[in-house]
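Hi R.,

Here's the chain you asked about this morning:
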Amino acid sequence: MAATAPAEITAMRRAIELAARGLGHTSPNPVVGCVVLDAHGAVAGEGWHQRAGGPHAEIHALRAAGERARGGTALVTLEPCNHTGRTGPCSQALIDAGIARVVYAVPDPNPAATGGAVTLRAAGVDVEGGLLVDEAAAGNEAWLTSVLRRRPFVLWKYAATLDGRIAAADGTSRWITSAQSRADVHRLRAEADAVIVGSGTARADDPQLAVRLPDTEVTQPLRVVVDSAATAVKPGARILDGTAPTLIAVAEDADAAHLDGLAPLVRLPRAAGGRGLDVTALLGALYDRGVRSVLLEGGPTLAGSFVAARAVDKVVGYLAPALLGAGPAALGDAGISTITKALRLDVTDTERLGPDLRITATPALHEEN
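And the predicted structure, written out as tokens:
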């Protein structure tokens, strides 16, 4: 096996950047980037998985490289696939192109697609795995979570004042955070397969939940309203405006006849405590519909039920430099009654967005056990 060259590390970092261009477009497939170096170590071609059902990253990169791929090296963020789905196996395409060495970052955990490295080695290709694995895995966190846990990846987003209020005592909330923070939320929506709100948010805000990003091509996420009693969504609601697909989740025993024809419905069991819907069942229903990543936008009651179910994989909080002193808190009852049961988080990023502070955090590893 050849030693990893500096040019390969640089190329893998480029492949990770390319992979990110597919966010929001490839589900239920992963985002993948690929860079092909020729036999002299120069970049010959690059590509990324642009949409589900379309050519994989390796195919785009090989096409760009042409004959320069022969005897060269392919740097791929995910182990090349070894199965035929809507496209052929990338492992065989690399072999046919005459690639002499393949370096990948993350091994493919999908049992239907794994084995690419074995096939490549059997054909005499030098194969190395694990280069920049943490960076590449972070870029594919939603897909990897969905494969390993058989449910969608859940990112809970909230916007609050510095004292944790998401609205004033009179219910007003527009706008707590800045235009820069609100634009960043649309980026999160564009990267998600589904956006979820609860009945309280549907009543109070009448949200549209569509992605609005100027000069950017987006795949609109599925808009989901968790309306247990089927009383929050009314004819004329903005979430029914046709700009994006909509799904209304109601309890199995709810009277939802008035919603017939307005939007697709899914009936789910109630939570064990009788309030709200069973979160595990909700995520299972979404997974069955091809949803692999969810942006949970609120409100506090729904967020609390997700935290209680230990179904939040990442938290993004937008904190405005303002104080209210009263009003609803960002998080409702999450079944945590004492400080020793607090869900501890690891902060992975902080960034200023205009006057606001965006904090990104994930559950601490010991909290998931």
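The radius of gyration is 23 Å.

Let me know if you need anything else.
M.
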